[in-house]
Amino acid sequence: MDFALSEEHRLIKETARRIAREVIAPRAKEVDETGEYPHDFFEAFKKAGLLGMAIPESMGGTGNGILPLCLAIEEVAKYECGAGLMLVLSGLPTRPIVFGGTPEQQQRWLPALAAGDAKAAFCLTEPDHGSDAANLETRAVRDGDHYILNGNKVYISGGTVADYLTVFARTGGPGAKGISAFVVDAHAPGVRIDRTDDKMGVRSVPTAHFSFQDVRVPAENLLGGVEGQGFNVAMLTLNSMRPTVGARGVGLAEGAAAYALEWARERKAFGSSVIDFEAIQFMFADMAIRIEAARNLVYKAAWLVDQGKYTREYAHHLSIAKAYATEVANRVAFDALQVLGAQGYMKDHPLERHYRDARQLMIVEGTSQIQRVVISRALIDRNLVYG
């Protein structure tokens, strides 16, 4: 069992850390306040070659894997959680093509997405179907050499800047077996962004609400060329990307704890530095315990994905990492803000932003409750056994 990072991993981590400090940190407050997509962040990731890590080399990516992607996400999320989401989006909408696309489809779309010459968004959630993805209502009906797509998708991260959309739609009967996956031109006639959200946090990456009105999608854009495979592709995608959401949580927690610790070193109260009080020291000790546990769970989960272990029998490991790390982010952000007291509540410091951003992580890509469903099923089915 080797816990050491490889030279390649360390280089990726250092590259992301440099971008985080030089490009992201100076603008973190601004992009939160404006809610505008930070194209300069994306260009920095593109220039550094960080956008193709979740895509195999044979498909035009760099093929580094999910663990190094998590390392990069962790570094940038220390300063701005939306920057971590931007890196997640290098994998979330592309993994369905990796898992479900034909070789021709993979070569058609993935090289440009890996190079940062195009952007994509993952369209699964609907107005009445979030966690209950097997019952989505968006429909695609075959019409000659095309499918006619109608329906709505909501809370689509990165949708406002996407060139392509990975859309899950019903082509058959009810339930999971009736769902297929398509790649849709985001600018095709009938594709419309009806609104964007005024979000509590992670405001730098807008979420869009899409409507599809008689959109003609070429049949060759049906992933895999076979109907009914979409739900399985969606689940494999979510499973394999769960460590990256956990990495956002780990990075956010590290950033919040580090900021509060430096403040506590400098702040005086009752004639001493705040950090000299044992009650405060114990708060930081608890933060460190949680962060280290979360990091190890996330790294293990990412390693499993890179070993090809992201199918149902391994899903509980990925869910444990996602649930714990995102909940740690919320607890550490809460405690770090508490250390600063009234100052932490003010926008003069980044902790109120970390606190708002952390709350998203327990909802996206499977709520904490959904993760517990996966974990409890593993216990019941004896995939996870103690004793």
From TrEMBL:
Keyword Oxidoreductase on entry: yes
Domain called Acyl-CoA dehydrogenase/oxidase N-terminal: residue spans: 6-117
Domain Acyl-CoA dehydrogenase/oxidase C-terminal: 228-379
Family per similarity comment: Belongs to the acyl-CoA dehydrogenase family.
Cofactor(s) for this UniProt protein: FAD
Entry superkingdom: Bacteria
Keyword Oxidoreductase part of the UniProt annotation: yes
Ranges of residues in domain Acyl-CoA oxidase/dehydrogenase middle: 121-215
Protein name: Acyl-CoA dehydrogenase
Keyword annotations: FAD, Flavoprotein, Oxidoreductase
A Pfam family per the record: Acyl-CoA_dh_1
